[in-house]
Design goal:
Largest sheet: 2 strands, antiparallel
Distance between the termini: 55 Å
Number of strands: 2
CATH class of the largest domain: Mainly Alpha
Shape: elongated
Number of domains: 3
Protein name: Mos1 transposase HTH domain-containing protein
Low-confidence stretches: 117-121, 158-163
Helix content: 40-55%
CATH architecture of the largest domain: Orthogonal Bundle
Order of helices and strands: HHHHHHHEE
Number of helices: 7
Oligomer: single chain
CATH topology of the largest domain: Arc Repressor Mutant, subunit A
Structural class: mainly alpha
Strand order of the largest sheet: 1-2
Mean pLDDT: 80
Length: 163
């Protein structure tokens, strides 16, 4: 039975002043699990008692689904390039794309992710300090060779992270 058929039955039984629980029991005895829940029957019954005639859903303004287009991907990429610290909410507000579209664009199409640094103990022994210096010099050389761009490196204290 379709949703409209259930609603039509509810409308007729409501017009005959049948209680909602009886309507629910009648439908359940015939349609089993397919039957709408009692609260749905009560809601529709109230609408019909209040004068509603139609059994179809009213048309409602829905937010248009923004598909992931090349223009949308470029728009999101430009926002990230402009401010790599901007949260998804900020990009969502600036581009008028839905939160989900922005999130899918960032993760699926741009293949970008947020990176968080972990806390590192400041009391390093000589061996750990030497290793840090060696890694920093190696990363610095990659920037000068053009293998990395300086904007690709996130720094915080002595830690370097490539994204």
């Amino acid at each position: 039975m379709t949703t409209e058929n259930f609603r039509f039955y509810i409308k007729v039984r409501t017009a005959l002043n049948t209680p909602e629980s009886v309507i629910h029991d009648e439908l359940r005895s015939v349609y089993g699990e397919e039957t709408p829940v009692l609260s749905t029957i009560e809601g529709w019954s109230k609408l019909f008692r209040d004068g509603r005639e139609k059994t179809e859903n009213k048309a409602r303004a829905a937010r248009p689904f923004a598909e992931t287009t090349i223009e949308n991907i470029v728009q999101v990429r430009l926002r990230i390039d402009d401010d790599p610290y901007m949260p998804i909410d900020g990009i969502h507000e600036q581009t008028n794309l839905s939160y989900g579209t922005v999130q899918r664009t960032i993760s699926d199409h741009l293949k970008v992710r947020k990176i968080t640094a972990r806390y590192v103990c400041k009391d390093l022994n000589d061996l750990e300090r030497a290793e840090r210096v060696r890694i920093c010099k190696k990363n610095f050389a990659k920037v000068h060779q053009g293998a990395w761009l300086l904007c690709d490196i996130i720094t915080g204290d002595e830690s370097w992270f490539r994204h």
